[in-house]
Every structure is written in C-alpha cells, then in structure tokens.
Amino acid sequence: MWQCSDKVQDHFLNPRNVGALEQPDAEGQAGTIAYGDALKIAIKVNRDSGVITDARFKSFGCGVSIAAASALTEIIIGRTIDEASAVSDAEIVDYLGGLPEDKMYCAVLGHEALQTAIAHYRGENDAADSSERICKCFPARKAFLERIIRTNKLTSPGQVTNYTKVSGGCQSCKRPIEELLAAVNADMVEEGVLDAAKAYHAPVKATPFMPAKFQMNGNGAPPRPNGVTEANGKSIGPGVPRPNAAPSVGGEAQPTPQGLAAFAKLKPEERIEVVSKAIDELRPYLKADGGDCELVEVKENTAFVKLSGACMGCQMASVTLSGVQQRLIEKTGMPLRVVPVQ
Amino acid sequence: MAVQKARRQVQALLGADQASEIMFNSGGTESVNSAIISALESAPLRREMIVSAIEHSAVRTLADWLAKNKGIRVHTIPVDRNGRIDVVAYKEALSERVAVVSMMWANNETGTILPVVELAEMAKEVGATFHTDAVQAVGKIPIDLKSTQIDMLSLSGHKLHAPKGIGALYLRKGLRFRPQIKGGHQERGRRAGTENVPGIVALGRAAELAGERMADDAAYLTALRGRLEAGLREIPNASIVAFENDRLPNTTSVVFDYIESESILLLLDKEGIAASSGSACSSGSFEPSHVLQAMNVPETALRGAVRFSLSRQNTEAEIDRVLEVLPGIVAKLREISPFGEGADAASQENAYA
C-alpha cells in the first residue's frame, strides 16, 4: 500500500463520498464478504439531463479496494449515465495513478458495481450471468471472465487471477482458466485486436504413458490379446506407470455378445459413466483394505485407473487390478481392459 | 567444536537425551519435508499418514503432494472452534497402516497448543512414527523430549532470534532415518552438504538464551498479553480466537466482524504499530486462512483477523498505544463497510462476536 501512488493512499486514508444516500435513484453492488471484497454504490441522477449529481459508496475490503471505490465516485459525479456506463476498469486505474498488479480486481469490482447501478437506473433486469462457473473458490463465471480478458487484453493466467481472484485459492481451476484464456486470446488475434505474438497458449498437456502394444488399432476394435501377464506376483513398483495384467487367471469373466454390441454403440461419455459407476461399486471393498481406486479416463475400451492408499506399491496390486478388470467385465458385460496410471 | 557446542545447546533446550539426536539444516520447511518423507520411506508397507487441519503449509502442501503423486492416504483431523484437536477422529484414523503422524506443537496463526505428548503416545500404540512441527513452540514453552514418545521435531532458527536460513531436526536415537539430501557424510550422513557453521553457532547461542529467559519471558508476556486482550475485548464485535484454549504466551489473534484485515493493518502501520493478518491474503493467495476456516470462524469475521505477536522487547506503554488507536480504526472502517451496523438484520444475526 505504501508503495502505491499518493493518490491511492490519499483515497484510502481520506475516502470521499462514504456512506448511503437518502432516496437514491439507483443502487448497485458487487462482491461479497466471502469473496473478500464487496462494494455498494448509490447514485442520484437528474432525470432531465441524465447527469449523476451525487454518488456514495460503502466498501468492505483492502486499502486499494476502498481507494478505488472512492475514486470511482469522484469519476462519475457530473457525468451523464451514458458517459458513466463507458467508464472502464482501466480508467479507474489511471485515475488513481496506477495500481499494483495484484490489486487490479479492486478496479474491476468498482466497474461491476457501477454497471449494476446503471442497469438498475435504466430499469434493466440485470440478467444473471448463467454461463458456466469455473472457479470453486471465487464466484466468477465464464462470460464475465471472457469480458475481463477482452476489455483489459489479458494475456497471462496470473493477470486473470489479479483481475478477478479466480484461481487464487485452491488452484484446481488452473487448467480450465489456461484453456479459456488461450481460446479467448485466439479469438482476439483472429479479430485483429490482439498481437499474435502476445497471445497466450496453454501449456501442452503431457500425454499419459501408453506403450505401443496398448494402442488401439484405430477403429475401436478390441486390442489383440497379447497383454503382458503379470498376475503371478511380479511387483508393480510405485511411481512406474506400467500397463499390466491382462487377466490370465482361470475362469475369467467373458464379455457377452450383447455387451459387445451395446458397447460399440455407446458414446465416449456414456462409456465413462458406465465404467465409473462400476468402479464406484468396487471402491468400498478396496477401502476396507486401506486402498482405493479411481477412474482417470476411458479410451476406446481401456479404462485407466489410479490406485492409492495401501494399493500403492503393494505386491498384489496386479492381482487387484485383474480383479477390478474381471468385476468390471462382469458388471458391464463389456470387453474392458484396466490399465494403472500414476 | 563450535558446531558440537551448538548441538549441545539445542539439545539442552529441547531436553533431548543426546546431542547426536540434533541434525542441523536450513530451517522448518526442510525439516518437515525430510522428516515426513523419511518416515514414509522407512515404512514402505504403511501407506497412510495423519495431519491436523491447522498445519503450516510446509506440512499441508507436502501432504497434498504425497496424496496426489505417491498415493498416500492422508487423514486430516479437524479441530473445534477453540482449536482443540478432535481426539475421537484421531483415534479412528490411527491404524497399523499409518506410517507417520505430523501434528504441530503450537499453531502459527492463533498460538494454540496441541497436546502432542499425548498424541505421540497414541501414535506409538499402532507403531506409527510421530513428528511434530514445533517451529512456533521451541523457545517459548518448556520441552523435554526424552520424557516423551515424540520421534522427530522440526524447529526454525529465526523464530528464536537466530538468523534466517538455519534450523534443526530432532531425530530420536534408534529411529530409522532416510536422508533426503544425498551426498557427503555431514551430520552423520543424515544431511549432506556443507554445514552453515555461522548459522549453527548462532542457533546454538539463541537456544541457550531462549532457555535461560523462557520462564521470565513467559510470565512477562502473559501479563502483557492479558492487558492487550482485556482491551481488545472491549471493542464491539471483536473476538479473541481460541481464547479458552492453551496458547503460546506471546500470541493473540483477534477477529473483527464486517471489516477486512489488510485495511486494519495499514491504518495500524500508519500509527507505527506492526501486526500481521491471520490469513495468507497478502502473501499471494486470495483464500482466507485455512486455520480460521478449520476453527469454524464464520464468514463475517473470516477476513478480519489481526495477529499481534509480542516479544520481551514490547512494553506496557506500547500495548496502551495499540488500545488507544485500534478502536478508532475499527470504527472508521465499519463506517465504510456495507456490512454490520445499519446493514440488514441478517448480517447482524450472523455476527461472530
């Protein structure tokens, strides 16, 4: 904060236009206590000229958040509603003489609150953003993120976090954010609004290890039955993703003709659903022995699973896997192959 | 010789049986990592570990990584609103599949003290290795490792006024240890790499001083903190975290409803008062503190935590100065806040304090 511009410090220490308005013409708000920053803004508008004659704010948040809200009220007082609706995140930042990179969301919050107030004034139903929610920790939806990326020309995931807090918590949405940013940037390049050299490209995802003999033959037919047989107690070391264990145990379950026919018809997502349901039914037995198993993905007729807990490094892991495979075939009637991955 | 002397000084502070049980390294995070990974390597057939919900990120991040990449099943034991560990859940999680238990001795955000001596005894019953992250506790409360079942203890030098970048790991004699930094034979082959001799000497001396002053400091800090907390409790909608629990004598964490800690800290700083926030918000993450979340601090106060850490150099006059300016700062920010007084009744009802 004390590295911020004098103007930011001044607006934080002596915020202007704090409070509520009696009989405001419109009110708007953005953010919540859970988000960590929240802003309420109220405006008075001259109905004839459309000029904003007064504005007040209340803010919950860090110092910059308070300063940005204070600055916003100064910016809009004296402007018409139309002029105010054109105020961008960047204008708030410029007015304050710049903001630290990781505080950009404060300007975004001011902009959002102002937009809801203007929509309220115009009697517009602020249509709730019903697009996909991407981040678990912070409530930001896809359409909102896309707009922020476009208007501020963001080209790195770190910037997206700084402007919206998204992915600034548990980080489990890191990948979807990278993909969204890359897609939006690609569109912007196509539209000629972004220099191709600056556009963001999502890092290439490592392809799961899969030796040649497990590659499908292209048309979705079952692989040739030449899988390695390791069910006789050879260990599968932890950390080494090794495909193993085509079942070699006697009396194994056989895929039924009906199963085969049904299997061929299923769409990929339906295959995943059927297999993951079957695995979920098996998990309690594995958990009872301190292990666990989760489905990673289904490709063609191969189910990639991840073993954990006691299963890891267990000498019997390959036997467990053959068992899982057998049960899956029994339950689904499909010619499935189970391959462990890390 | 200098290193040997430092080892004996740290041994004395920890109440360890032998000086050779002390292994010097770079600090708390390295200690924690090498302790936990070694314990897992030493018991390859045990694939589970237990931690508390309020561990430092050195333990938390490692546990998450082990769960994700090494298939280790991690049991996270919850705490109640006073930061007391759920012993029933702990007992349930303990089994012969558990390789290592890691519980902090004292929490860094709230100062709450965990009953690690008892928890270690319970871990021993199932043969699990017990590690404690005692970074916050060492030098502040009496520790006598030889009378406990604790196998490993991590400490960091700068928490007891030694320089940054030096730490130590206590390894009970006879415990199997797998070195995590491989190379030469330094530290009895347990931690390769050239020793940080100046750091080690400083840590030794700091340990000696901490031991000498601990009792006096504890009495002084408890009194000082009592004065601070009595004043803090006068502030409306403010609550001292884990007030009823055993805590380190120097730490107090207070949460204020409806306002955000960074702005409180900034205004305190303007008055020349240094405090810190309970959360990691200022350090690169936007998430509120996992410790306060684990203690069920409600949303209204989760973002409003301020931690005061006292040392022997603080005076009563300084405490009075804090109490003189803080109520005004809180009032000013509540004036700006859209929540709380004057706001809708629902948010009032949900207030924490």
Describe this structure in a few short sentences.
Chain A has helices at residues 6-13, 63-76, 81-85, 89-95, 104-121, 142-152, 157-164, 174-191, 257-265, 268-288, 317-332, and strands at residues 26-32, 37-45, 52-60, 291-299, 302-309, 337-340. Chain A is α+β, with helices and mostly antiparallel strands and 342 residues long.
Structure in words:
The complex is a heterodimer of chains A (342) and B (353). Chain A is α+β, with helices and mostly antiparallel strands. Chain A has three domains: 116 residues, Sufe protein. Chain: A (Alpha-Beta Complex), CATH 3.90.1010; 77 residues, no CATH class; 129 residues, GMP Synthetase, Chain A, domain 3. Chain A is 39% helix and 13% strand. Chain A contains eleven helices and six strands. Chain A has a three-stranded antiparallel sheet. A three-stranded mixed sheet of chain A has the order 4-5-6, with helices on one face. Chain A is elongated and about 80 Å long. By secondary structure, chain B is of the alpha/beta class. Chain B has two domains: 209 residues, Aspartate Aminotransferase, domain 2; 136 residues, Alpha-Beta Complex (Aspartate Aminotransferase, domain 1), CATH 3.90.1150. Chain B contains twelve helices and eleven strands. In chain B, the strands form two sheets. Chain B has a seven-stranded mixed sheet, with helices on both faces. In chain B, strands 8-9-11-10 form a four-stranded antiparallel sheet. In chain B, helix 3 links the parallel strand 2 and strand 3. In chain B, helix 7 packs across helix 11 and helix 8 packs across helix 11. The longest helix of chain B has 36 residues. In chain B, 51% of the residues are buried. About 2% of the residues of chain B have low confidence. The chains are: A alpha+beta (342), B alpha/beta (353). Chain A: This is Nitrogen fixation protein NifU. Chain A: One of its GO terms (molecular function) is 2 iron, 2 sulfur cluster binding. Chain A: Belongs to the NifU family.
